[in-house]
What does this fold into?
Amino acid sequence: MNQVIQRAYNFNAGPSALPLPVLEKAQQELIDFRGTGMSIMELSHRSAAYEEVHNQAISLLKEMLGVPEDYEILFLQGGASLQFSMIPMNFLKQGEKAGYIMTGSWSEKAFAEAKLFGTPYEAASTKAGKYKEIPGFDELKYNPDDRYLHLTSNNTIYGTQWQDFPDTGDVPLIADMSSDIFSKPIDVSKFAMIYAGAQKNLGPSGVTLVIIRKDMIEKANTNIPTMLKYSTYSKNNSLYNTPPTFGIYMLGEVLNWVKELGGLTEVNRRNEEKAALIYQVIDQSNGFYVGHAESSSRSLMNITFRLKDEELEKKFLADAKKEGFVGVNGHRSVGGCRASTYNAVPYETCKAFSEFMVQFQNNHK
Ligand SMILES: Cc1ncc(COP(=O)(O)O)c(C=O)c1O
It folds into this structure.
């Protein structure tokens, strides 16, 4: 008997919605991956069938992001959180400086790890204003001889996003793009390194993507454990040890899906359209819904807002749940409401939610 599957209205912040066509293809290929008689998870990571998947994912990333020749694509594990430690471990020594631009909890976590290895400092912070905005380029204070400057391109918890990136000249710019990678075109050449946990726009959790300029790998510290050196991954095409093969396969399929939609420019257009549905309701609500982010720093990935009183907010979240909207609670550290509208969240899901918001306001005037 054919079962009709009802896909959820999924606004989870990560892991989050994956494209339905990708899930269907993975399901179809699960038991017999391309004539091998086994699933991708059962293949050796040294087999030709797996290596093709691995290398195709790397080529697609390079092609679609326009990654220049002097960069490497690496697949690691340990999430973006391990990068918070690996970056200073590889690039800082005691007494050496790196600037951290503080735009939310993830920047704070990255900064805390760097203190274990060198002398990081705050190159800017919007904490005093409750992380409602991204600092202006003219507010960034860093030094030409710093080892690097670190930023978080999209603040998943506060719902703010860099709209453009500074040109930092000879100071290597490193970005945590965990929650907006692949949501729009970016100029990779502005960055010495980009990293992202895969579980928002790229695939399932378990893979961490690193895009790194080769000179960074060459000048990294050497007295660190093998698995924590970027050079180990670059020398071995990320196959020094067993990589998360299923996750990399899914990442490749998600990239193919984006390519078929029309690439990053088209995905960005769709993301703008989806986010506008919800931001418009907030803006036209006469203060019934209050957006957390300043308009100029709004994220297209995580839309954060509160209701005018807490009781009503509880009711809103409870009703949203009843209507089938999943993951609308704000992060446990800040509360409120958050709709994460990553690439794979369909327009219809955002439309349904915006209509629910209007209806709720009408019922509670
Ligand atoms: C911007 C950002 N950085 C880092 C992390 C931590 O990522 P992971 O759970 O992969 O360590 C997250 C998780 O949501 C995030 O949103």
Notes: The mean pLDDT is 97. Residues 14, 79-81, 106, 152, 156, 176, 178-179, 197 surround pyridoxal-5'-phosphate (CB under 6 Å). Residues 264-363 form a domain with the Aspartate Aminotransferase, domain 1 fold (CATH 3.90.1150.10).
